Every structure is written in structure tokens, then in C-alpha cells.
Amino acid sequence: MKTYRQMIPGEHTAGSVIPQPKEVQNGEGVFHLQNSCAILFGQELSEEAEFLSRRLADRFGLKLPIREISGHSPGQGNIVMERTKSLEDCGYESYILQVDIDGIQLEAPQPAGIFYGIQTLLQLIQAGDGQIFLPALEITDWPTLKLRGVHIDLKAQMPTFQYLKSILRRLAEYKINTVLLEYEDKFPYQSHPKIVSPLALSREQIKELNELARLLHIEIIPLLQSLGHVEYILSHSEYAHLREVPNDFSQYCPLNPESQRLFKELAAEILELHPDVQFFHIGGDEADSLGQCPRCQAKAREIGKGGLYVEYINEICRFILNQGKRPVLWHDMLARNPEVVDHLVHDAVIMDWDYYSRDDEPFKIQIYDKGGGQIITKENLSEVSEKVRSVFEPYWKCEDYPDRFNLFGYTRFFKDRDFDVIAAPSVRVDGDSGYSPTFEFHLPNIRSFIEVAARYGALGVVATSWAVRRTPWETLWLGIAWTAEHAWSPERTDRQGFERKFLQQFYGAEDQTGIIEAKYLLSKLVATASYRTPYNEQGHYWGLGAMLQEFC
Ligand SMILES: [Zn+2]
User: Fold this and answer.
1) Of 11, 81, 201, 374, which residue is the least packed, with the fewest Cβ within 10 Å?
2) How do residues 461-506 score in pLDDT, each as one tens digit?
3) What domain range includes position 264?
4) 272 alpha carbon to ligand 1 midpoint, in Å?
């Protein structure tokens, strides 16, 4: 038997499930799982039944047969999963899980709800003294946020394919239903092989990843930068003529028709391998060199830098919409140029990124004005340009407490203009130590951002995970589980209680707060290595080997 993680007998109740189920009624006794139990499934649930059977075999060595329900009473002692209409108002991911001493009944309006009921069931199982059992209870559960996502950034940290698949499986355990997949040079472009990293996924691997994501009820949102942050392309001399500024390889010239043509060619290849996606992220952030080449300078004099941006981005958005997908873009360039927001293609989805604002420190917020994100306080508010301040100050102003800010005002601003918004806090970002993310600021940032996103009707949340720091994925899960917990139910969670629950679920550790303390200590260590430029002459992000060569 392959042990997955150590189980603590007697400790698994609905209170130990991540994310915490919405409604729980505890019953009397336990249900014993043994090989005489069968998994009986209703209409369109064979994949979910097979999934449960496989997981029980992998984790507990159980070999439960699966059978389709065929008219007769399913009988006692079994796990029965069926579609129901009774929860339809709670959404397609809702479910009811009933466990009593005679069996397990799982009902949901859609297969996704059955899948999440299975994930809850798996977290409730206890094994000890040769017995495998679950407590009797009834759970009625549904998510608050429709879209619950995590960003996988392949640019600087390429996991093995096996590991990448294991990340998806673990995300599904926490009922994460979206992955924002930033390929950068790890996509096997056929039309532009020069930009493909030797570590890129193969076409077959991407198809396998899609199939796994489908089984796990995870939707992939591919990300392809359309304007700025195309260093991995423009650092190659073959593409240098597309640069906005000759000696800066970060950004396309938006008025060079070849920039758009290249984006469309690359996007078409990605869409060919991701035919079923609903969203396509076009990046669009931190286009700091906008309006610098002679042609763009002249155009910016005519319609402003904001006009230059939105004309180009609209063309990109229309291309994505014509492929039957919804474009998603980072919000910061619109925040810097609010006068053009009403000109943006309305079906675009705004991804509002803010990695620093947090409700336990409401005296500062992250804003976008002249450059990328900057932190402002009441003291330096006067440094913000009039153009930005006049639009956003009503959103920042906290009427009840004048010394504080209202946080995450951009989400409310874009919602007021009737855009769909996705909140993007962070579990790993540039300012972190190279050893562990700084959860002291990530956790409050994630929690308070999700609270605002839920209150103002955002589509959901995607926790960004920038691989620039190359912090190992294993150090990220506390932040990811915390994101999953709040995306499912944004009500405030007691952090210490959550950390204890996470230790038990993730490490099988009961009272080892030292693990969390070690994470916090590691997050305070400053990484000693820094690097001259993150891209090497082949256009690929510097690996550790290349960095060491540079410094030795
Ligand atoms: Zn230009």
C-alpha cells in the first residue's frame, strides 16, 4: 500500500476538512470502509466513481468494486453517489454528503459537486488499528466564489511533468477549480521554435495535462503576454525589430503590425492545444516603455498613452473573442490610465492584482500611477498624480476612519463599470525570501482581498505564485490552502486554528507548530544571490547553474 500521508486516528471531523464545509451536522458512530463495500453511481458519474475507487486503493489499499445503479435499491453498506435537483440553487459545485453507520450517500446536481463531495469524504477518512472509517455526519456544502484559482508560473521554475501533475491533483483536493498557466518559453511553439526552452512541455504532455485537469474539474486559463514582459521573445536578435525601445527587450511596439501578428500566431498554437478553455489571459501589465519609439510618440501625442494602450489591447481582445474565448488582462495599465477604461472591450475580464494591501494594516494601500505597483500612505498621498487621484480617491476614502484606506478599491471601481473582475492576491512574490514565502503578509492580503471580492460580486480569485524567487512549491501550500479555504467560504478564519488544521491535513502532524514557525523563520532569511539580468543570451530565464557560473 502506498501511504499518502499519515492519518491521525480519532481526529478527522468536518472541522479538519480544507476548505471548511458550509453546514455540518454531526451524527452518532462511524461507518467502516472495507472491501465488501461497493461504489454505486448514477447517471454520468462513472469517472467520479472510478476516481474514488482509485484514491481508496492508492491511499488505503481498499479494492472497492464500482457499479452503475440499476433501478433496485442500492442496499446498505455501500457508497452511493447520485445526481439530485434539490441543490441546484447552490450552484453546480454543491453537494450533500451523508455518512451513517449503514453507508454513505453523496448527492449533487452536477458531477463537479459529486467530485467535491468525494474530496471531502477522502479528507474525513481515518485509519488506525487496522480499521478504516469515517464519522457519521451530514454535510451540505457549496462554494461562495465561482472561480477559485492558482497561478502556475513556468518561467523561472520548471517542475518535472510528474510533479506538475501532482500539483494539479493537490489543488483539486482543496477544491481549486482554475489554474492560470503561464507558459512563457515552456510551450512547444512550432511556428517559432527559436523561443522554445529545452525544458518546454511536449504537445503530448499538454494533452495529458488537459485530460487530467478535466478529470479533476480544473479549468486551465493559458496566459500569453501581448505587450510587455515578452523578454523571452525579444531577447532573441531575430525578434529585436519588434522592441519598443531598441536596447530594452521587455516590450513590443504596439504600432508595429508584426507585434500583433506574432501574438496571434502564438495564441493560435496555444488555443489549438487548449481548445476547450473559457478564458485566455493576455497579460497586458507593466507596459512601462509605452509611447517611446518615434511612431508611438507621435500617436501618444494624439490619443495619449492610455489611448495607445487600449487601442492595441482591444484588437488583441477582439481576436480572442473571435476564437470564442473571453480575454483576461491585468488591471494596472488601466488603473494608470483610467480615462480609457470605458473604451475597453466590455467582455474583457479584469484581473486586479494587489499583493500588499491587507486589512490588519489599513494605513497603506497598493496603487498604480506612474510605474508599477507602489505603496502609498496618507503622508505621501499628495504625490499621486491628479489624473489617478481624482478617479480613485472616492474608492480609497474610508468615511468612518479618516486615517485608514478602504482596501482593494480597484475591484469596486471595475465592478461599478460593470466589468467582470477576478481578484489576484499572491502566495509568492518578488519581495519574498528565496527560502519561503512571507506568510505574515501573504495570509492577511489573501484573506482580506477575497473578502472584498466576495462582497462586491467578483467572479473569483486567482492566487498568483511568481516563480521569480524560485521558492520550492512545497513551501507554498500553506498559502494555497488558505486561499482555497477563503475562496470557498470568505468568512474570517482563525489563523492559528487554520494552521493547526493544515498541519494535520498536509503533514499528518498533530501538534508541531514548529513546522509553521520554521516557515516563518525561513521567510525572514534574505536570499544572498542576486543576478544581473534574469534572462540569458538564449532568452531563457537564468537557471541556478547559469547564475552560479556568473558569480563563480
Ligand atoms: Zn512603438
Assistant:
1) 11
2) 999 999 876 788 988 999 999 999 999 999 888 898 898 889 888 8
3) 224-343
4) 30
Q: What is the whole-number distance in angstroms between the Cα of residue 541 and the centre of ligand 1? A: 25
- Rounded-to-integer distance, Cα 490 and Cα 546, Å: 43
Total domains in the chain come to: 3
Asked whether residue 357 falls in the same domain as residue 502, the answer is yes
When pLDDT is averaged across residues 364-380 and rounded to a whole number, the result is 88
CA of 262 to the centre of ligand 1 (A): 15
Q: Which of 343, 374, 392 is the last residue of a domain?
A: 343
93 belongs to a structural domain = yes
Q: Mean pLDDT lowest for which of 70-79, 317-326, 374-383?
A: 70-79
All three cell numbers of 23: 453546514
CA of 284 to the centre of ligand 1 (A): 15
Q: Tell me how far the alpha carbon of residue 253 lies from the centroid of ligand 1, in angstroms.
A: 4
Tell me what pLDDT residue 149 has. Answer: 98
User: 477-488 and 161-173 helices cross at what angle (nearest 10)?
Assistant: 40
Same domain, 54 and 85: yes
The answer as to whether 216 is a domain residue is yes
- Residue after which a domain boundary falls, among 116, 141, 166: 141
Q: Residue 242 C-alpha to ligand 1 middle, in angstroms?
A: 8
The answer as to whether 370 is a domain residue is: no
The kind and range of the H/E element at 124 are helix 111-124
Residues 93 and 231 in one domain: no
Angle (deg, nearest 10), helices 46-60 and 111-124: 20
Q: What pLDDT was estimated at residue 8?
A: 42
Give distance in angstroms: CA of 2 to centre of ligand 1. 57
Q: Distance (Å, rounded) from C-alpha 525 to C-alpha 275?
A: 43
Q: How far is the CA of 235 from the centre of ligand 1 (A)?
A: 17
Task: At 519, list the grid cell.
Answer: 516557515
Pair (102, 150) in one structural domain: no
Distance from residue 319's CA to the centre of ligand 1 (Å): 20
| Percent above pLDDT 90 for the chain | 74
Based on the domain organization, do 230 and 134 belong to the same domain?
no
Q: Is residue 380 part of a domain?
A: no
pLDDT in tens, 100-125: 999 999 999 999 999 999 999 999 99
| Span from the CA of 289 to the centroid of ligand 1 (angstroms) | 9
